[in-house]
Please model this.
Amino acid sequence: MTILLIEDEEPAAKRLQKMLHEIIPDAAVSENIVSVSSAIKWFNENEQPDLIISDIQLSDGLSFEIFKSVGILCPVIFTTAYDEYAIEAFKVNSIDYLLKPIKKEDLEKAIAKFKKLSAINPSPAIDFTNLLQALKQPGTDYKKRFVVRYGEHIKTIDIADVVYFYTEDKITFLCTKDSRRFVIDFNLDALDSGLDPLKFFRINRQYIIGIHAIADMFAYTKSRVLIKLNPPAKHETIVSTERSADFKLWLGGEK
Model:
């Protein structure tokens, strides 16, 4: 059996590899893939494994994007840090999942289920589009707070105090209501999938803004929208052309 791991947290990947070798000693566990982009590249250059074990949230987005880009024929076991309530969305799709931190007995059961299902149907059909929509339905466990460091101090920031996120020199920052800015260990792709879409919207490649951060808006060229944020942003914040239509729907609570 060949198994491909897709996991962006190195300690979690090593622990998973160790458990797999204990459960299936003769399995060939491949190198660990850490991002959506590297996974797509891997699939384009290699034969598909017998089984994929993949985290849902990777450093550059949701792993479902991999399966939308590449025709996956083998079964997938997802791992996730979401709580039991959020995971109900995935049960209806007949997909195995493991709740982090992963327990060895849970992994053993998932492998046993994989073997049983593979004997019945070697190539199960998986609707990843529906999974992606399920993740965004009400009840999803959206990000509630962030842990940040400043100097030698560590503090938590509630999502209600965050007005927008932005990137600068490949570093992601969050800005609070009182104009304080903190570095966070997330990129905008990962944030975009973990924030409540009713409250936050990604206006371009550099900014995700909160509805409560909008101080004023102006019509701009090519049907775009110029936004003035409160607190003021360090950069000019313009809704990109391709996002303008969805942005206007979002403003009206329709998206």
